[in-house]
């Protein structure tokens, strides 16, 4: 039996009985939530984790077959829920994790109570009847860049490795990685994310959902938030003042306030 | 101040300052020259205006988070998009500082035209080498593993085929040899009773009632076990089935056969999947029978059956193998008496049954599990005492070709 806690670098804080499970998106790991979860730690048990292949997870557990598909990431979430014996938890997912959380909630509804979706998108690529924000060529360019710019990515992705010839033992400690560290894994995660189409799954989601839509988010633009709102039967849509794709970093107070409001609703 | 700005403008590298919202507060002449914009076209605009689409994604998913989390980044490679559409490869170092009440993100940017060429060569050489190495090693590993797995699989297939045949044969013999005497006992017992061959006394009546009950229970068990064995011997071909039609048909059969009253059945979603029609009808018949047997007295029994599509891994026992394919997920929920969740895996065991179940043989769910597993699916139960039970069945939409 794999040690799920080690594999997914699960960290637990807080004193509440009800659990909030925070799931990071494509890019950086659980550190992304550091301005959000402390606001809830007095009322909730906080569970943070990194997907296999991200942050400080056990990269040896990475399986390209499994993580080629967002359902593989959903399995990480479900296995963590199972290991913690969760029931009626609040799932908070950023970006692609919103979809991962939905998939998990469809498969095992009892683990979850409500879903908070930060900058979600069920499909990134435009087609005649849907606005996702990207043309297929844009995504292909991204994947191509990730292929070509291998060293750039590798440099980019492991910025924390500092050379410290005087004290080599320090280097290891300094390599704590906030973001994706392996270019090959990051490339696959990008592909699983940006080529996904989960529009048909929306109808199966039964839990109350909060859609936190940023103003001026190029990755998940407003029409996408509206599309989700009209296709998720039990959802509320909030258009935030925060801009960009990471309101939990750029506007933590606003993000916390909306989540709090949503959790207070019955 | 003016002098400082002049110094910045003349730096031999680009220099840009933007805020939390990504709005450009300052950009020096060198960078303006690189991207071909005038200063007033960019001030107050989003920094993303200077990036290609893929660099924008990069910026949103990695660069901005990293700058915020670590306050500093170095040697980041990005592609700028000049006003005339040209792509400019650059290297960036950035820092986040508090300027007054706002966070200021300050970056220096240099073009890396030359460096990129070396890198391109390096990358190609490295990729070629890596690829060859990986291909070679993984091919070798794969062929070794395939050989081993095939051998194992072959042995398993032989074993399974033999076991199955024995099992069916054993079942048939057992059932015939068991059923025949049971039938005879039952027959002669009835006859003895009807011909009043046994003297009627109060003591006898009680005894006879007990024997009668045992005989009919024995017949029920024998019948159930025979059905269980029969499913394994089923020769019915696989066809396309519709989840909602099967449930409705099974419910009609059940109502007609038993005359059960005060039942509401709601069927939602209609998903096609491959399977053997008759056994699946049996499965839903058993689920309905179970729900009725464990219904709450005094209120209508409500059964909700919902079918949706999900993707599941087709590999169930091979570790580390993943292939996600379309599956139908059927959730069968009732408002019955439920059971303690701790017994969730116990209830589908062969001949296991709950204490409060007096009439059952303990075969219903085992039968269902057998049918589902025969179709490469999974079945699980989630229940809460006093609230109800949900049986979840997940089946592949397309059945694999049979081995034998």
UniProtKB/TrEMBL annotation, chain A:
Matching SUPFAM superfamilies: alpha/beta-Hydrolases
Q: List keywords of the entry alphabetically.
A: Hydrolase
Species of the source: Dyadobacter luticola
A Pfam match? Abhydrolase_6
GO terms (molecular function) for this protein are: hydrolase activity
Residue ranges of every copy of the AB hydrolase-1 domain listed in the record:
21-257
Keyword check for Ribosomal protein: no
Family listed: Belongs to the AB hydrolase superfamily.
Q: What is this protein called?
A: Alpha/beta hydrolase
What PANTHER family does the entry give? ESTERASE-RELATED
